[in-house]
Design brief:
With about 140 residues, the chain is an alpha/beta fold. It has helices at about 5-15, 45-50, 75-90, 120-144, and strands spanning about 35-45, 50-55, 55-60, 60-65, 95-100, 110-115. Strand 2 and strand 3 (about 55-60) form a beta hairpin.
């Protein structure tokens, strides 16, 4: 087994909810003013890291990025969390998690979704892209 896989298996629970603090139950709705920026197959990742292999086949893994310096940073974080949880419910391990950056864009209202890497096949990328678009659409419909 690869060293990176062992390390990620040991560390990943800490990032994905290992010992979570008790949170207030805050309802946030996905609004039409939030844009989703899809980046497909652009990251320079090895196929081993950018692909989830299951019994049904393989899919390109998904990373969600937001800007916490934005005036809407808290809202974006809650929405990214909701998308991450939906992805994990559909296909455990498909989401690579959430990266919260501080790009100092005060009016930014978009979530960047990075799908797969340069080594993923077009089928893997298309499967993951269609799943993410479906989930985003469901979240938008739920908000209406």
């Amino acid at each position: 087994m690869h060293k990176w896989l062992i390390t990620s298996l040991l560390i990943m629970p800490l990032f994905l909810g290992g010992e979570q603090e008790q949170e207030d139950n805050i309802e946030v709705e996905w609004t039409s003013s939030i844009e989703v920026d899809y980046r497909v197959g652009e990251e320079q990742l090895s196929k081993a890291y950018s692909t989830l292999a299951t019994n049904e086949g393989s899919q390109a893994r998904i990373l969600i990025e937001i800007d916490t310096a934005s005036a809407h940073g808290e809202e974006l974080l809650l929405l990214a969390k909701e998308l991450h949880l939906e992805l994990e419910e559909k296909e455990p391990g498909l989401s690579r998690g959430i990266i919260a950056k501080s790009d100092l864009s005060p009016q930014q209202r978009h979530v960047k979704v990075t799908i797969g890497g340069v080594d993923n096949t077009s089928e893997e990328l298309e499967n993951s892209l269609s799943l993410v678009k479906e989930l985003v659409n469901q979240l938008e419909q739920k908000a209406l």
